[in-house]
Amino acid sequence: MRKFLILVDYLSATLCNTGQNTYETKTMTRLLILLSTLLLATACTQAPQQPSDATTPPEPAVQESFSVLFGGTKVGQLTVSGSAQQLSIDYGFENNGRGASSQESLTLTTQGIPTQWQINGKTTFGNAVDEQFSVDGDIASWTSAAGKGSEGGATGKMYVAQNASPYSSYLYVNAILKGENDTLPALPAGQMTLSKVADYTFNTTQNNVPARIVALGGIALDPTYLALNEDNQLMALLSPRFTLIRDGFESADADLRQIATELNASRFKDIAERVTHSFDKPVRINNVRLFEPEALALTSLSSVVVQGDRIVSVDAPVTDFSSDEVIIDGAGGTLVPGLFEMHGHMSDNRALLNVIAGVTSVRDMGNEIDVIETLVNNIESGVLIGPRITRSGFIEGVSKFSNATGEMADSEERALELVREYAAMDGYKQIKIYSSVNGEWVPAMAQEAHKLGLKVMGHVPAFSTVDEMIYAGYDEVTHINQVMLSWVLDRSEDTRTLFRITGMKRFADLDLQSEKVQSTIKLMSERNIAVDPTIVIHEFGLTARNGETRAGMRDYINNMPISVQRSAKVALLNVADENEDKEYKAAFEKVLQTLSMMHKRGIFIVPGTDLGGAFELHRELELFTQIGMSPAQAVRRGSYDMANYLGYGDDLGSIEAGKLADFFLISGDPTADIKAIKTPSMVSFGGRIFFPSEVYPEFGIQPFTRAPSIINN
Known about the structure:
Layout: H1 2-16, H2 23-45, E1 61-70, E2 73-83, E3 86-93, E4 101-108, E5 114-122, E6 128-136, E7 139-144, E8 147-151, E9 158-159, H3 167-177, E10 183-187, E11 191-203, E12 208-217, E13 224-229, E14 234-238, E15 242-246, H4 253-275, E16 283-292, E17 297-298, E18 302-307, E19 310-315, E20 326-329, E21 334-337, E22 339-344, H5 348-356, E23 359-364, H6 369-380, E24 388-397, E25 407-409, H7 412-424, E26 428-433, H8 442-451, E27 455-458, H9 466-472, E28 476-478, H10 480-488, H11 499-502, H12 515-526, E29 530-532, H13 535-543, H14 562-567, H15 578-600, H16 615-624, H17 631-638, H18 640-645, E30 662-666, E31 682-685, E32 688-690, H19 692-695, E33 710-711
Parallel strand pairs: 9-10, 16-20, 16-21, 22-23, 23-24, 24-25, 24-26, 26-27, 27-28, 28-29
Antiparallel strand pairs: 1-2, 1-15, 2-3, 3-4, 4-5, 5-6, 6-7, 7-8, 10-11, 11-12, 12-13, 13-14, 14-15, 16-17, 16-18, 18-19, 20-33, 21-30, 30-31, 31-32
Helix pairs in contact: 1-2, 7-8, 13-15
């Protein structure tokens, strides 16, 4: 009977799709009548059967396309095709001479939870991606660059892919929306959350599309914002600098980035209101030693009194507590002047994390003008917690490898106009020249900048050498590889691409005593050229390997959310084989040797990370102890020396009466162990007091220390 039913269904469907008045039609009609007669006869001699289920209609096709925009410039595309339960995703972008790409295939449950997920491609810096996830029964298994894993009880849990496209955030949201509440358990660990945060209408020339903006949390340190239409389809993924927007709606880019900026500000404003301790009475931090940068030593036990945003006195410790003061017990710990991150690209979340790590000042080395202006205004008005920011005017040339950040010049005259525009704005102390700028423009740019009181620094433009840029007027060279590449590349080799990173493996065979190396070192020494080496990002690029926690994160990785822990086990670059592995690691050793030689020759080395600062700056200063500085010298370089280098020495860099109250409390002695700076228990930023133990849980970070005791609060 079952076989008859299947055959009848098949013939009926075929008949409906066959042309009329054909021989095939007449034949199948007769066959269908015959089968129906047989079926009726069989039914009369057998027990009644339940009616068969209706044929399941085919799944609707999925075909979507999105533009990838960075800073308002389209840099890539993402397409989605297939059906609701079988998806293919193709993603790619190119910006600043590098880019990521991936192809994904997924099998989904009716709730939209993957049971199979395959991702192949490359990361932004070229690391190969071959990620797989599958569910067998109730057991989930996965393999990614961070390693392998499996877990039972996987039913109803959403795997958080490590190297998926941005569309993965929508997959997570869609699965939550199809569930019973606004949460969803995640694999390998954690729980996703979803909340509505705003309404929005996409306006086009054809129609208006109502949408709502939702926040996806629980995956990373910060939420991800997405715009969904009334049918819960993805319209956009938005952030202050990056957007993924459905094709045809790109005109909303600026609006969405502004909304993301405002949402971030709202979130961090709420955090600031809950974690900022401002006191009406003077605050005395009692029973502490102070790091004294000129002596490179700690003082005897003291107390520091803060009123308003300034230090009013440094006294002996007190035992009789006045009711007119708030007393914070330092318990014999050390106060360290606020640190400087000299190569930042600031955003709301990075701003807060820097302050909580004791990094109270940042030199921003390139940002969209509107992004950095909004951030600075929010910090200065007290809406957000963030460091004191010194701005750099980012100038890039026009090429197919251009960096979308900052302002671009297509001629020498336009480059000079940009120098003048930056000089006319408040807060800019230098210009940063980038890789696509024509090297022949630099002498005029440097002359104009110096005339207007701006320093000149940056990359070595493509097809130029570091010596040429020094003669042209550079005051500082950004990234140590930009110096060293001039010693190993031919002039024709293009450093606007990822080659400026991968080409560093040639450093392994570099003779540091060669004439070309020594000539540059001599020139830098004679002309007082500083270098911002960003050692920590080169350590990451040259030594990090898939499946191993990278060196810069080992001291605090266990306190991080699971997504950060997994990211810490992913290499920046693709390492082809054992020989290339050795070349890259040898190249990093040559970087350290070069910086050690520079330090001995008196070349001024400034600490910056290009990785966001905060914990990374702690590691940068730790690496300074590997190039010849003592721990005390490294701490001084990160605080006192930077305050004077940027012209803030009268207000910052040391803990003295009359200076701004920017410092942090640690339990150990940083002159003996540089790692002591990694675990502040209290931070004073202009007299406002913060306890990291209250802030880190907002990011899913397990606190490292307890807050000190407060008396007379």
